[in-house]
């Protein structure tokens, strides 16, 4: 079942496998978390003193802060990244979320005009000409 506790257990199991089976050292480890996955990533990073780095892609501050504009952490909140990030001792790269509306507006501005694109001529006649003249082998 995908509970907060189980996601922490999953990332711990992956970490232990990397250490034991593949001999990966903490100094070689770059952790990555996307959205809700930033929760287990920040949790593990806050417990590793020597990891190489952390990449947080569209991270959440906490479960509660995704839903409501609260300014404090409640005991029942989940994935309390905002409280744990201070304990991370390595470099952190945050890739912010780009909203679809923002991207759409940038694409609209990049269009040169609203005129429909002109139809293009077929190149079939060029290929036929080259074949007839023996220019294409």
TrEMBL record:
This is Alpha/beta hydrolase domain-containing protein 17C. GO terms for molecular function: hydrolase activity. It comes from Hibiscus syriacus. Keywords: Hydrolase. InterPro entries: AB_hydrolase_fold. Coiled coil: none annotated.
């Amino acid at each position: 079942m995908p509970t907060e506790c189980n996601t922490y257990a999953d990332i711990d199991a992956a970490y232990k496998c990397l250490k034991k089976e593949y001999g990966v050292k903490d100094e070689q480890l770059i952790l990555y978390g996307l959205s809700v996955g930033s929760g287990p990533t920040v949790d593990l990073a806050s417990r590793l003193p020597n990891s190489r780095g952390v990449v947080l892609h569209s991270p959440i501050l906490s479960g509660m802060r995704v839903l409501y504009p609260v300014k404090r952490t409640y005991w029942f909140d989940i994935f309390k990244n905002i409280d744990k990030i201070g304990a991370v001792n390595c470099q952190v790269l945050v890739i912010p979320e780009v909203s679809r509306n923002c991207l759409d507006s940038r694409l609209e501005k990049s269009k040169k005009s609203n005129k429909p694109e002109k139809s293009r001529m077929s190149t079939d006649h060029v290929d036929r000409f080259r074949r007839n003249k023996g220019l294409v082998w």
